[in-house]
Design goal:
This protein is an alpha+beta fold. It has 20 helices and 35 strands. Bound molecules: cytidine-5'-diphosphate.
């Protein structure tokens, strides 16, 4: 029965793939409206410069160019700045100063896309270069040029955030037998989703209705933001419809509001025509929000026997020219407080300082629950460094220190209540599956022969599902999420959600939750997301929150329907509602299985034969406010071989054990993990965005921003343990980002392990052949 229904735990084929594999997806760039015009953007070649003059005359002389919009044009509309999620403001277009290379300077609207590009090339801008700061540590020096002269505070410091017990932690460090300390830089990267960002904006001058099709992970929040920012121009919320059609990868990069969106809306309001703006690949890499860019100094205090006692972490966070990080309002450093990881530290103190530099703004949660990847990398690297210091096996040291299964729910010293976990179980499974003992033996034999092989472990804990609304909000909007289910008379259903899939398979997995709860076949349930005119209000999909929050809302809404259905079933079966139970996906009279009604029969009756006095219909809505977050975890083991000639690191094996509680669709979860692992491999070995001293971007195209291809990606091996979340209605935790969070440390640990006998303790990622070869040469072992 369950197999026919395709409920929870079944690898139901993804419903959405029917259109994706035929090339029939409907992305923003597929939207074509009559009379549509195109917008392209003039961008700054300088990282910091005063704009002396913008001459648009040559651009406006090009046939087909309809308008050139500059910052000065936006001033009367009060649109030259826009608020950011972190309480800062960001330029839509500059009126006098640009603050990073590739920043938007002006917009050109034209009848054709290529004419808009010609217009961009013809706009003449005169700049006066200003001093540039790209290093956030230098940006904090007293003589550093001030980037944000618009602020009352005349330095580059944005905010200080701290958590934990400073005095207690300092004391624990003073009293400790052993202390290890490491500077760790986690470089700036970008999400590089297949689809770049874009919008089609259609403003109807007659009825004042604005419809936008846009690449957003959070359509409802965007609608409210548009109403708040442009309400003074008559754009009120009932007249704004945000449609987020199919999205070709979001990964956090499609949460922020980029100036291009505002400009497309502005251009449509100005011209009365539908306007399309689609950024190109270079714009996407060079100007959209970045991730990471954390300069971390982390220390662990431990006893001689390896018991870890205290953790101290100090971080400089480079936020670029505006603080446009995509975090919940009260968490400027995201959920970095999960940095104590899988270990029961008695004391911890963590501080982060946000700093302005002449770089693009951002600090998005790139496939990560707001700075969790940074936290997991820091703690998992530190554990390995401690193991080296104590001459202990890193697996053994972890096993000694893990929070034990019986300690859950576990309150971390930094105030996070972990719901459930079995860390030792996950690591043991990974060790057994990969053959850890045999690998260590092989490594020691190879070392004698001078060969470089390393084994790296990462036993990470995530924190996903923002959030309990008492702690989490975005611009004041509480972080709940929603589901609305309607069961039609013929027993088919539609589910509408406040979240928005970007490739994760929601059309399948949310249907599976309803199938399980209502006993309707998964194929009879349609899932719809991403249209603010139809979907209930929700905060969107990022930070792996869909399953923990909207998944819970879906289960609860379905249970509301099931409860109403019970009354209808009682009516149909001429029994008391108290005698009706839900069993084997049917309503049954207790103890009389032959007397039963299916949900389809009950649904028909809800419209044709419902009890007198009861409202007709069968539908329910739930706005779910999670009581707590969920804490997925995993243990990854990576085996690398290093070429002593080229310095190239080859990932020979990678075994990933993940635990995301109850699994809805094992095939989708495995796919999520495979993708996440590749996105974890990428920053570990390849990807990085750098800037030269003048603020010129290095790595701004796919020629030098090295996305791993199938050639670089190893054959991932996966396994699982299942530790349900006790507070989630179906016991599920999120999974979409676990692998991206856990993988980089496993890979970095493996590389350092391969070189540890040469005295290497740490290498900053990405661990490129160049970096490794330099070390091999210094150590005199290069071939
Ligand atoms: O918020 P987002 O959809 O990115 O992440 P997620 O909640 O971790 O879910 C990613 C995909 O994996 C969705 O299709 C989920 O329904 C599915 N999933 C699952 O099948 N079982 C879980 N325990 C968690 C997620």
């Amino acid at each position: 029965m369950a197999v026919e229904i395709g409920g929870i735990g079944h690898s139901v084929a993804r419903k959405e793939d029917a259109r994706f594999i035929r090339g029939k997806g409907n992305y923003v760039d597929d939207v074509k409206l009559p009379g549509m015009v195109y917008l392209d953007i003039v961008r700054s070649p300088y990282a910091h410069a005063r704009i002396l003059k913008i001459d648009a005359s040559k651009a406006l002389a090009i046939p087909g160019v309809l308008a050139v919009i500059t910052g000065k044009d936006l001033v009367p509309l009060k649109l030259e700045w826009m608020p950011t999620l972190m309480g800062d403001k960001q330029m839509v277009l500059p009126t006098d100063t640009v603050m990073y290379q590739a920043q938007e300077v002006a917009a050109v609207v034209a009848t054709e896309r290529y004419i808009a590009a010609d217009g961009v090339a013809a706009v003449e801008v005169e700049y006066e270069p200003l001093p540039v700061v790209v290093d956030p540590i230098k940006a904090l020096l007293p003589d550093a040029p001030v980037i944000r002269e618009d602020r009352a505070q005349k330095d580059n410091h944005i905010w200080h955030w701290e958590t934990g017990d400073r005095a207690g932690t300092d004391k624990a460090f003073r009293d400790a037998d052993v202390v290890v300390k490491q500077d760790i830089y986690i470089p700036r990267i970008v999400v590089a989703s297949i689809e770049t960002c874009g919008m089609v904006a259609k403003f109807d001058k007659v009825d004042g209705q604005l419809t936008v099709w846009m690449t957003t992970q959070a359509p409802h929040a965007i609608r409210t933001v548009i109403a708040l920012v442009a309400g003074h121009l008559g754009l009120s919320e009932q007249k704004i419809r945000v449609i987020s059609p199919d999205i070709g990868g979001g990964f956090g990069g499609k949460v922020p509001v980029y100036p291009g969106y505002v400009l497309a809306i502005g251009a449509s309001v100005l011209t009365g025509l539908p306007v399309k703006w689609i950024e190109d690949r270079s714009e996407n890499i060079q100007a959209d929000s970045f991730a990471r860019d954390y300069h971390i100094t982390a220390e662990v205090a431990s006893k001689k026997d390896g018991t870890m006692q205290a953790l101290r972490v100090k971080t400089i966070a480079d936020h670029g020219a505006f603080d446009a990080a995509a975090n919940p309002s009260k968490f400027p450093a995201g959920l970095f407080g999960i940095v104590t990881g899988s270990y029961p530290f008695e004391k911890a103190f963590v501080e982060v300082d946000g700093v302005y530099t002449n770089k693009p703004p951002g600090g998005i949660a790139y496939r990560c629950s707001f700075r969790v990847t940074e936290a997991a990398f820091a703690i998992e690297r530190l554990v390995d460094i401690l193991a080296l210091e104590l001459k202990r096996d890193p697996a053994d040291l972890r096993m000694q220190n893990f929070i034990p299964p019986q300690a859950f729910p576990y309150m971390s010293t930094l105030g996070w209540e972990y719901d459930s976990g079995n860390y030792a179980g996950a690591l043991k499974l990974a060790m057994d599956k990969i053959g850890y003992a045999a690998l260590r033996k092989e490594q020691s034999e190879k070392r004698k022969r001078g060969e470089l092989m390393g084994i790296g472990i990462s036993s990470f804990t995530e924190i996903v599902g923002a959030g309990p609304s008492k702690h989490f909000d975005i611009l004041g909007i509480k972080m709940f999420d929603s589901a609305e289910i309607r069961v039609h008379p013929t027993g088919k259903a539609i589910v509408r959600l406040g979240v928005k899939s970007q490739g994760q398979g929601h059309e399948t997995t949310f249907a599976q939750i309803v199938a399980e709860e209502l006993g309707l076949p998964v194929g009879d349930i349609k899932v719809e997301e991403g249209d603010t005119d139809t979907a209930p209000y929700g905060l969107g999909t990022y930070a792996s929150r869909s399953t923990p929050v909207a998944g819970a809302a879906t289960a609860v809404a379905a249970r509301k329907i099931r409860e109403k259905g019970r009354l209808i079933a009682a009516h149909l079966l001429e029994a008391s509602p108290d005698d009706i139970e839900w069993k084997d996906y049917k309503y049954q009279v207790k103890g009389v299985p032959a007397k039963s009604k299916t949900m389809a029969e009950v649904a028909f009756a809800a419209y044709t034969n419902h009890p007198q006095g009861m409202e007709a219909g069968l539908e329910a809505v739930d706005y779910y406010d999670p009581p707590s977050l969920t804490y997925p975890f995993g243990s990854y083991i990576c085996v690398v071989d290093i070429d002593k000639g080229t310095g190239e690191v080859k990932v020979r094996r990678f075994y990933a054990v993940d635990d995301c509680g109850t699994i809805i669709n094992p095939m989708i979860v495995e796919g999520q993990i495979h993708g996440g692992l590749t996105m974890g491999l990428a920053p570990a070995l390849y990807e990085e965005i750098n800037y030269d001293k003048d603020g010129n971007i290095q790595g701004g195209t796919f020629m030098d921003y090295l996305l791993p291809t199938s050639m670089e990606t190893p054959s991932w091996e996966t396994g699982k343990t299942t530790t349900p979340s006790p507070h989630h209605p179906i016991g599920a935790k999120g999974v979409g980002e676990s692998a991206t969070v856990g993988a980089p440390a496993a890979i970095a640990n493996a590389v350092v392990d391969a070189l540890a006998h040469l005295g290497v303790r740490h290498i900053d990622i990405p661990i490129t052949p160049w970096k490794v070869q330099k070390i091999l040469k210094e150590k005199g072992v290069a071939e």
